Amino acid sequence: MPTNENFLTNLPDDKEALKAMLHSLWQERERQEKRAEEYLSKAEEQRHRADELYLEKLRLQMELERYKKATYGPRADRLSMNQLAQMLLEFAETLEQKPINLEDLRQAEPEPELRRVKRRKGRRALANFENLPAQTHVYELSAEERPCPSCGVERQEIGSEKSWQIEYIPGHFERLEHVRKKYACASCERKGENPQIEVAAKAETAIEKGFAGPGLLAFIVTSKFADYLPLYRLEDIFERQGFEISRATQSVWCGDVADVVEPLYQRMAERVRKSHVVATDDTVQPMLSPGQTQSARMWVYVGDESNPYNVFDFTLNRSREGPKEFLKDYTQVLLADGYGGYNGVVVGNAITRAGCWSHARRKFVEAEKTAPEIAREAVALIDALFAVERQTKDVSFAERLELRQKQSVPLLVELHRKLLIWKEQLIPKHPMADAVNYTLGQWEALTVFTTDAAVPIDNNVSEREMKRVVLNRKNSLFVGNPRGGRTAAILASLTSSCRRHDMDPHLYFMQLLVNLPTWPARDLDAWLPDRWKQAHYARCAALGIPVPPTP
Fold it and tell me: What residue numbers bound the domain in which 391 lies?
């Protein structure tokens, strides 16, 4: 390659030749720049592709961890590193506190045989054992066994030994025949006048001209919506007990019961809308449709302690119209997760939206493998918030708010500062960036609890109710149509509210179905679960009957 000095000395004298040479050099320079740009473009494309593959790897890793946790792992949202460190710390503390026994250090002779676990003496602790009805079985020696083996004189009774055994007697069916006597005036009949015939009235039935009694209806509803037993299994159980009832018939009866108790359901919904804080959540409720099931939704609305009812609502989709219709007259605090549909519910009215820190924490736990250091710092700060809440469990609203202002607010300030730093550090599509952006996007709702002592820090109360819906869905698969979804919502609302008040839903439904058809509408509140429990316990106390055991 010629040097610059030789190149300059060998320049042509001809002007046109010099122009041609310069033009050639200029084109060569443009080609080199173009090749450099193409190289940089390919390098940038490869770097971008590498980033995309890295993010896709992180996303798949996080999804795999989520599935593994759902299949094999614990339900609690814990960081894997923290869990291992905590176990090691507890083991070390226990080992350090344990005194050293010199005898343990010596070589011990092996035992000749395995030690056997002895059965603990005495009866196991059984709740409400004394309240069970009792039958007495007396066992005596026969006449042939009473003579004394030594002298032959008949032995006399000197006492007895008592022992107890618990037995279970399965349910059974009975036929209840209702005979209504007819009465007529014999004198009027002899005169050829109207004999004034009248039939004796019988008690109103829950289902008009229905074949099922209130006890049977209560058992079916309780089994289906409190014990999550699908109707086809109930069909088999009934057949074993000697009377088969098809699942289709049971389904119709459940719908009839829902019709009877719907006014009470509507009253519970009205009371929930009077709550200062309403917690809500939703889950998929498949509904049978041609081709494949339709993804309908089941919503729950949990009232506060002044309105202690859990009300479910069935909708055909997850649009905001469902909660918007249910909460159309509500103007206070709505506690929910980050579903965007709630924004359309609270916008333009007086509803305050409160967020759930359990959801925010779960986002960091799920993305732990992609950024362990960030996950540990974020979860540690959020756990500190929950530690403050444990201190406020049994205090007044004023004391709770004071503790939150003094201890929770500084933690939130520190967490918010770190979230902004992490947002700048992470790639926008990074899985941990999703957790950071979710928390920042919900920040106003997540901090409502620091200014309102009645607002919980999480929405776990409604999530627990959704887990029961999921269990029922797992056993029963789907509802048949919109009416079936409405039936499920009504009956699940009553059974869930019974569980909230530690009531026996079967006893409650049985009395409800006997009395509600003729009960005056103006006094419907007497059959609200909490009001009924108070009245029922008062009746038991007045009659000297033991209080029914908590289910």
Answer: 357-455
